[in-house]
Amino acid sequence: VNAEILTIGDELMRGEIVDSNKARLAERLLSLDLETRFQTSVGDDPEDIADAFRRAAGRSRVVLVSGGLGPTRDDITVEVLARSFGRELVLHEPSLEGIRAFFARFGRTMAANNEKQAWFPEGAEVLPNPVGTAPGCMLEQGESLFFCMPGVPRELELMMDEQVLPRLGARLGRRGVVRAMLLRTFGVGESTLDEMLRDVAKDGDVVLGFRTAFPDNYVRPVARGASAEEAEAKLARVCQAIRERLGPIIYGSGDETLEEVVGRLLREHGLSVAVAESCTGGLLAERISSVPGASDYFRGGVVAYANAAKTALLGVPEALLREHGAVSEAVARAMAEAVRERFGTDLAVATTGISGPGGGSAEKPVGLVWVALAREAGSQARDFVFPFDRPRHRLVTSQLALDWLRRLLLGEEPIAPRYLERPRPPGGGEGR
Amino acid sequence: VNAEILTIGDELMRGEIVDSNKARLAERLLSLDLETRFQTSVGDDPEDIADAFRRAAGRSRVVLVSGGLGPTRDDITVEVLARSFGRELVLHEPSLEGIRAFFARFGRTMAANNEKQAWFPEGAEVLPNPVGTAPGCMLEQGESLFFCMPGVPRELELMMDEQVLPRLGARLGRRGVVRAMLLRTFGVGESTLDEMLRDVAKDGDVVLGFRTAFPDNYVRPVARGASAEEAEAKLARVCQAIRERLGPIIYGSGDETLEEVVGRLLREHGLSVAVAESCTGGLLAERISSVPGASDYFRGGVVAYANAAKTALLGVPEALLREHGAVSEAVARAMAEAVRERFGTDLAVATTGISGPGGGSAEKPVGLVWVALAREAGSQARDFVFPFDRPRHRLVTSQLALDWLRRLLLGEEPIAPRYLERPRPPGGGEGR
Question: Residue B29: helix, strand or coil by DSSP?
């Protein structure tokens, strides 16, 4: 079964936006064990769109189309779809009502050009769009199934998940069922993960995928079975085996971010946290507070970027800064202890380091970072040296601090110092 | 002149990575006034790649290919290119030496499979890759010019800028020269910008493009001339006209971010800044400190997320919080004044608001934000109500605070309160 993806829009042709919809759709097709074979983009040109439709009909069973469903003159996807296959456009009354209602909800009147969005090719099945005005449609043309969806990512994802995948799953039911899970890890390289899991998933019906999303690495087991139950059972088994092998290296699954995991654990334990940041400059506070409801456990932080601020705001003794320097175990611990006391929290973390590009020395190179954790029982600090650039030094440092909190809350040891410092091989040499 | 882009790799077909290379290449083609007409991606399948090559040769004068130049068995782009057009592969000795030297630089020995990267189709011109092991090539096939480049973004960009664009420019020299500039604005909607600039660029050789990158809007004038001098002069004229019309709504140009502009102005004025954040939760500090060298003007900040922290760390009187609430003019100003005093800076900004999704009331809805600015002469605060979601409320609030700093340093009025609050039409309805 061939699947292909077609995205439409002049803004793609001009490189004004990065087309993330193709990856979104391709990844979701995998859940039905469908691998995309072709991906095409064309501009808002009727000839080019029609040509792409006809070529797709000749070679692919499944054709996912995104973009060009809006109300403006440029949006011609549905019209061209009808014309390409010699079909009339017919008015879909429920869609027209839906679009009117959508505007009414926001206290506005439907513009005349929005009516266009309620016309579909004869024989098409309309796919509702509860979060926008552009409904989609499914059209069977010869051997091919066309699905037209909006280009707005949020609308596209919802329509793909709730309308397209169930219909596709039913049509291709004979193929068996596939279930997948994304396991999120931090602190171990992709090749090490691959080695650690070498003898997991030897069953041909289970495949492991790997993906890097700095500073994390993801493992994605995909299991296939004759039924949903069988696929789910296989997936549960392989996930269990992976979890046994990797232990706390896995910090979460699915969409859950590390800051969400830490927030959940803090809430479960009824503990509060504050942060003191030098090199991360506010990133750690920003990540913790980005989670809705974070005020339940996050009290705040101090960004003590200048040394004087470390003394004035956190009471780090000037003598300590003179003797050890700002990037040192002593200062990191003093920052964490002070911020914990000032905010009156159960836990506190602190970061101090040299993010670069300037500021490094032979003794304290760019990439050196100290992370400290304070609790009632006292404080500890750990150091790392990273081979990255300024933004990645900041990001991985905030990740280390969060991961240490997570491991503490789980009763696990923090990840071994210097574990992460091994430089990766030089970037070159790979085609992609 | 048709231009098309072809990217190659199984990871694209599986949606494992978002293909940003197409936008990278398409945007660069615009500098030669070439708009892409087709964009295609296929997996590492020799038949599919060959098919894509032959189709491109039949319809496009310029074909940019990215990916599949690596040393592994999957990397077959060059081999298939040769075979598709009946050409032999020949060894390019200088490339082989270059690859050996690349490994030697990192103290490693070239693996046998890297030799493959030095073979090219007969008649191709090799394009050097100073930052990786995979050289590219240019092949003229009938009417078409193929350029094969690596998929690693950094290598791709360098090869495109230094090898491909000059060759293309020379070949297509008869087309004239195009120059473009990105002007970054904040605080005015795209349609308002469009109206404000209606009678600018009426000359057919100058075109205005618009692009939204929340919370900013960009204007991109593109000018064409018979020579580089003529194009540059036209571009300078239209930029001048746009700047006269928009004034301080334009905060910068090219790649310069608002935090970079503010940092540059602070350094020029020899002034320092600190921040007090509630609703932005560290984002403002993070943005200011993300700029290399920020320690010259940024002293730090307090993330006073909990009310108790506003009192303990910033000395905001409890009575003030009780009387006005945390999201109020009085508290915003008290925060800005206190953080300025504690960090001993010339300037300070503060944010307090209700980012949502929870925490709103009839009187103080989700999206309400107060931003305050303190200097020696005293403090001021302004309020806004935004119709967005939590992450965008935080982002636009940090942008407002930075923009106020910028305007202060330029001697301009801050952007009018509530100027931004007009709700945009509901997200739906646009196909893309």
Answer: helix
Q: Kindly tell me the burial class for residue A101, based on how many C-beta atoms sit within 10 Å of its own C-beta (0-12, 13-18, 19 or more).
A: exposed
The fraction of chain A above a pLDDT of 90, given in percent, is 69
Tens-digit pLDDT profile for residues A119-177: 999 999 999 998 888 999 999 999 999 999 999 888 999 999 889 988 998 888 756 67
Contacts of B357 in chain A (CB under 8 A): 292
Residues of B in contact with A69 (CB under 8 A): 431
**Are A291 and A366 contacting, i.e. CB atoms less than 8 angstroms apart?**
no
Give dist(CA B15, CA A19) in Å, integer.
Answer: 12
Host H or E run for residue B287: helix B283-289
Q: Cα separation of A325 and A318, whole Å? A: 10
Across the interface, do B282 and A289 touch by the CB < 8 Å criterion? Answer: yes
Cis peptide before A414 (omega within 30 of 0): no
The token pair that represents A134 in the structure block: 């552009």
Residues 6+ apart with CB under 8 A from A255: none
Cβ pair A119, A92 in contact under 8 A: yes
pLDDT at A419: 52
**Residue A302 pLDDT > 50, yes or no?**
yes
Question: Which chain B positions have a beta carbon within 8 Å of A105's beta carbon?
Answer: 426
Helices (H), B172-257: 190-196, 228-246
Looking at beta carbons, which residues of chain A come within 8 Å of B429? 70-71, 102, 114, 117, 132-134
- CB proximity list for B97: less than 8 A, separation 6 or greater: none
For the stretch B48-79, pLDDT in tens is 999 999 999 999 999 999 999 988 888 999 99
Evaluate whether A122 touches A82 at the Cβ level (below 8 Å).
Answer: yes
pLDDT 10s digits, A18-49: 899 999 999 889 878 788 999 999 999 999 99
CB contact under 8 A, B430 and A70: yes
ipTM, two decimals, is: 0.81
Helix (H, G, I), strand (E, B) or coil at B383: strand
Which alpha helices (H) appear in B138-196, and where do they start and end? 153-159, 165-171, 190-196
**What's the CA dihedral at B407, B408, B412, B415 to 10 degrees?**
50
DSSP A68-115: --SSSTT--HHHHHHHHTT--EEE-HHHHHHHHHHHHHTT-PPPGGGG
**CB–CB contact A428 B131 (8 Å):** yes
3-state secondary structure (DSSP) of residue A290: coil
State the pLDDT at residue A284.
98
Mean pLDDT computed over A332-353: 98
The CA distance from B303 to the nearest CA of chain A, in Å, is 5
- Helix ranges (DSSP H) in B85-188: 93-105, 153-159, 165-171
**What Rg do the C-alpha atoms of chain A give, in angstroms?**
27
Token pair recorded at residue A295 = 């005020």
